[in-house]
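Below is a filled-in request sheet from our internal design queue. Each sheet records the structural input a requester submitted and the sequence that came back. We keep these sheets so that new team members can see what a complete request looks like end to end.

REQUESTER: design group, bay 2
PRIORITY: normal
MODE: inverse folding
CHAIN LENGTH: 308
BACKBONE (tokenized):
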């Protein structure tokens, strides 16, 4: 007759495994997932492999130049440069230069000398304060979506590289201004940095922010980019005093402190004609280049003859 002693750990381990097996099996039989319900315990293997799939691909299957948007080779190069290590590999390239549609730049024995002005674009040639912008710059990422350290680092990079830093629609924060890089102020539907108490556009506050020397251009953001139709919401739990300061909204502990809403559309204008008139108004107020960006789903909405 089988007997299990108190010190027989292998027996206790066996009992534990059997109990665990039945416990998981009974739970799987009540699961709303068909695989687990039809194949108790065993069906969990499927979800385990699904969880491990990215790591398996990354470490055992995926090539160094396959992943997007950044391959493992590019990521490793960025890490090495960030650590001050050499990023150059000897003995030629590891890329397949003979594959179809591979692109490269040929060497010239008589290279053309490129003037510095040919590497920049002139914005607002007829404005009182035109701006020469680089061809590659830092796109819009708001303070609030990114931390103060991230914003400071990006703007410092813009100053070091000689290009501009788009603020995103979260307003011009003190972290944008500290490093001293050029700024393109993004004016969205929330009018952060030029916002009245009721959330509408405030001309005096706009002029105050636009007069900051680091602000070189103003960009009007139409709709909500990837969030058209319902706008954007920053819960009050995420609003810090610094974010409230940059956006011109009540901060924690202040009267009117609430969730920060970016409406789906602008309240200062309506339609394409209103947009152009608003651009002209901001140009007159700021004396700086003013443009706009949009995500167009229906071309007719941008036609002047369209009725609003």
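RETURNED SEQUENCE:
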């Amino acid at each position: 007759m089988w007997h299990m002693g108190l010190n027989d750990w292998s027996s206790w381990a066996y009992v534990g495994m059997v109990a665990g097996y039945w416990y998981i099996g009974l739970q799987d039989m009540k699961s709303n997932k068909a695989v687990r319900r039809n194949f108790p315990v065993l069906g969990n293997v499927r979800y385990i492999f699904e969880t491990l799939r990215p790591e398996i691909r990354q470490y055992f299957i995926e090539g160094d130049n396959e992943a997007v948007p950044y391959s493992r080779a590019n990521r490793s190069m960025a890490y090495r440069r960030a650590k001050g290590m050499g990023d150059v590999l000897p003995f030629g390239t590891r890329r397949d230069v003979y594959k179809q549609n591979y692109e490269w730049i040929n060497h010239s024995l008589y290279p053309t000398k490129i003037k510095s002005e040919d590497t920049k674009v002139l914005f607002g040639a007829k404005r009182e304060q035109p701006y020469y912008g680089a061809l590659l710059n830092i796109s819009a990422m708001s303070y609030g979506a990114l931390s103060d350290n991230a914003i400071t680092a990006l703007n410092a990079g813009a100053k070091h590289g000689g290009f501009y830093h788009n603020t995103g629609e979260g307003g011009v924060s003190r972290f944008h201004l500290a490093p001293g890089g050029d700024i393109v102020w993004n004016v969205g539907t929330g009018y952060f940095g030029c916002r009245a108490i009721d959330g509408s556009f405030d001309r005096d506050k706009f002029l105050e922010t636009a007069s900051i020397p680091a602000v070189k251009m103003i960009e009007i953001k139409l709709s909500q980019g990837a969030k058209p139709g319902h706008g954007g919401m920053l819960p009050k739990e995420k609003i810090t005093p610094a974010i409230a300061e940059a956006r011109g909204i009540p901060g924690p502990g202040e009267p009117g402190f609430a969730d920060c809403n970016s409406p789906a559309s602008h309240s200062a204008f309506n339609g394409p004609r209103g947009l152009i008139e608003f651009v002209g108004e901001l140009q007159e107020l700021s004396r700086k280049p003013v443009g706009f960006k949009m995500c167009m789903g229906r071309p007719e909405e941008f036609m002047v003859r369209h009725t609003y």
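SHEET NOTES:
- The two ends are 90 Å apart (CA to CA).
- The chain is about 35% helix and 10% strand.
FILED BY: M.R.
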